[in-house]
RNA sequence: GGCGCAUUCGUCCAGUGGUUAGGACGCGAGGUUCUCAACCUUGAAACAGGAGUUCAAUUCUCCUAUGCGCUACCA
């Protein structure tokens, strides 16, 4: 049987980092097994679902390279089928009409209200004491025909227990006494999540359900529905959750855009790097390696190596240097500095285009120069954004001077204000504007001025790049070339700030 | 409250009935260098606690603690 898995996000906001990881694992599993990776948008929550969100999810998946098979399924399109399934179960006597007036729980602390209610009902509560559970078919129909509103609930067996073998968590058991007669169809006719999921998974012929551990206990309910419907449940694999520092839930409301995939793309992360990082949250190939390209991930991935404890997505909110997980930042830098240059170039191009720094010559007359320059500066960069920020002086005459750099490398040595233009004169006439030659000339210049090589170089760095940090200055000179180097050494702009 | 799941350095991930419990990120120190967030070397850093099984337990079992999840006519 061909493996068929699905990623089923609900379009209520941006693509969440945890959901993305579920999507990735599903994708890796499908590709590893040579199966299908399907996409289903669970848009049954009409109030909260938006098209904008769906678009954002699709974009995120495309960015990460998680291409899906077949047609996207929109859950809301199947509402009729879900209803039909509920009615079928009602007809078969496996479900019943519950005429209990709808009790609305609302407010911010829904979870607490539910827990309170459960606490209050402790002891006297039996999951099977619903008075309508045993209503005769005739009576039930009479009431329904009279227009009394009703929900449809599944008849969960009185005794026994539900069990399944989870591919990650092992044997799972739950006593039927712990499971209430769950509602399949609301009194307004809308199908509920557990029913919808089961119906769709059946319809889509899903063989393996890989999803967050928050569904682990729900699974028993779903299996009950499969059984009532006379279908064989798929194999289940639950994933550990991704939590915020301190082991708390990672939420949009509390943690903001740090949980959104769009943030990482906008911040200059490489899809390959972030995907790699995400793959290692809750899974490992069982070896001490961490850098894997997509094909390697696909090849190595297996459910057996998913582990059971939740992972913490580590970041420090008020520290710009650790604004997101250190390892993600490190991995991004690692990719930038070690990936094939040819793969990096298009990404840098996109970044420069976006910031209006791109020039067509970079693909034409200046192609070699551009590649060489990117190769030179990428060594110290962490994100693609760095190419347009820290790297700006390589691509434009319009760059800023870092105040600290000017203080430290220029103002501190007032002589440089005359020396550097002098050096410009010297460089203007140097016959070969290359590394070794420049070194000889500048060393000599340094001796004449009885100063340190570093003083000249750092001063030049600040003037040429606006920064106090960067690649070897000889390489910077060479890259910027004679004309620009000379011009910038003579410029008084930084001195007059 | 009930039920379920989990617990190895700060974080991510290895690992074994007998190991100096390993790697990575981050952090500290030193080095290299014209600067640096790069590079090299190096340091600190963990088996939640208690019982039991065993010659031996981080590894197996139980209890406790803690965290998380579910407990809804939400998804």
Task: Describe the protein's architecture and organization.
- A hairpin with a 3-residue loop joins β6 (161-166) and β7 (170-175).
- The model has no long low-confidence stretch (mean pLDDT 92).
- α6 (193-203) crosses α7, α10 crosses α12 (326-338) and α17 (403-411) runs antiparallel to α20.
- The chain has 4 domains: 4-71 and 242-322, HUPs (Rossmann fold, 3-Layer(aba) Sandwich); 77-194, Glutamyl-tRNA Synthetase, domain 3; 340-395, Helicase, Ruva Protein, domain 3, CATH 1.10.8; 403-490, Orthogonal Bundle (Arc Repressor Mutant, subunit A), CATH 1.10.10.350.
- With 497 residues, the protein is mostly helical.
- The strands form 5 sheets. Strands 1-2-3 form a 3-stranded parallel sheet. Strands 4-5-8 form a 3-stranded antiparallel sheet. The protein has a 3-stranded mixed sheet with strand order 12-11-13, with no helix packed on it.
- The termini are far apart.
- The longest helix has 18 residues, at 473-490.
- It has 21 helices and 13 strands.
- The structure holds one RNA strand of 75 nucleotides.
Would you summarize the structure shown here?
This protein is mainly α. Helices cover 45% and strands 10% of the residues.
Task: Report the CATH architecture of the largest domain.
Answer: 3-Layer(aba) Sandwich
**Top-tier CATH class of the largest domain:** Alpha Beta
Lateral arrangement of strands in the main beta sheet: 1-2-3
Q: Pick out the low-confidence regions.
A: none
Mean pLDDT: 92
| Termini separation | 71 Å
What do we call the CATH topology of the largest domain?
Rossmann fold
Give the domain tally.
4
């Amino acid at each position: 049987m061909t493996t068929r898995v699905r990623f089923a996000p609900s379009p209520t906001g941006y693509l969440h980092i945890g959901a993305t990881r579920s999507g990735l694992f599903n994708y890796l599993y499908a590709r590893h097994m040579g199966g299908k990776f399907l996409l289903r948008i669970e848009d049954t929550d009409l109030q909260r679902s938006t098209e904008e969100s769906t678009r954002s999810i699709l974009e995120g998946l495309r960015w990460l390279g998680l291409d899906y098979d077949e047609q996207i399924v929109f859950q809301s399109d199947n509402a009729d089928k879900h209803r039909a399934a509920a009615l079928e179960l009602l007809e078969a006597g496996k479900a019943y009409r519950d005429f209990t007036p709808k009790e609305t729980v609302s407010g911010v602390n829904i979870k607490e209200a539910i827990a309170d209610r459960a606490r209050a009902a402790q002891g006297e509560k039996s999951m099977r004491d619903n008075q309508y559970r045993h209503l005769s078919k005739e009576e039930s129909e009479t009431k329904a025909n009279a227009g009394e509103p009703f929900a449809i609930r599944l008849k969960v067996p009185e005794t026994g227990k539900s069990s399944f073998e989870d591919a990650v968590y092992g044997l799972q058991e739950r006593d039927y006494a712990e499971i209430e007669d769950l509602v399949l169809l609301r009194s307004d006719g809308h199908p509920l999540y557990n029913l919808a999921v089961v119906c769709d998974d059946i319809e889509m012929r899903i063989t393996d359900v890989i999803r967050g551990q928050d569904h682990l206990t729900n699974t028993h309910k779903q299996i009950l529905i499969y059984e009532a419907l006379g279908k064989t449940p798929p194999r289940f694999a639950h994933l550990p959750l991704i939590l915020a520092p301190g082991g708390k839930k990672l939420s949009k409301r509390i943690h903001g855009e740090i949980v959104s995939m769009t943030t990482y793309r906008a911040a200059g992360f490489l899809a390959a790097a972030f995907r790699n990082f995400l793959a290692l949250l809750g899974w490992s190939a069982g070896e001490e390696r961490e850098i894997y390209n997509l094909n390697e991930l696909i090849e190595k991935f297996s459910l057996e190596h998913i582990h059971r404890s939740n992972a913490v997505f580590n970041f420090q909110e008020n520290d710009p240097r650790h604004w997101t997980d250190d390892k993600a930042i490190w991995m991004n830098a690692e990719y930038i500095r070690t990936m094939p240059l040819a793969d990096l170039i298009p990404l840098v191009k996109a970044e420069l285009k976006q910031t209006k720094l791109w020039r067509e010559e970079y693909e034409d007359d200046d192609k070699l120069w551009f590649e060489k320059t990117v190769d030179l500066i990428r060594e110290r960069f962490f994100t693609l954004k760095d190419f347009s920020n820290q790297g700006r002086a390589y691509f434009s005459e319009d760059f800023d001077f870092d105040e600290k750099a000017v203080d430290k490398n220029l103002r501190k040595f007032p002589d440089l204000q005359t020396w550097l233009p002098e050096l410009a004169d010297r460089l203007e006439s140097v016959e070969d504007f290359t590394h070794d030659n420049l070194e000889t000339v500048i060393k000599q210049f340094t001796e004449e001025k009885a100063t340190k090589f570093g003083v000249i170089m750092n001063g030049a760095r600040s003037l040429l790049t606006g920064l106090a940090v960067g690649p070897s200055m000889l390489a910077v000179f060479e890259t910027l070339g004679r004309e620009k180097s000379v011009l910038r050494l003579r410029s008084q702009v930084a001195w007059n700030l």
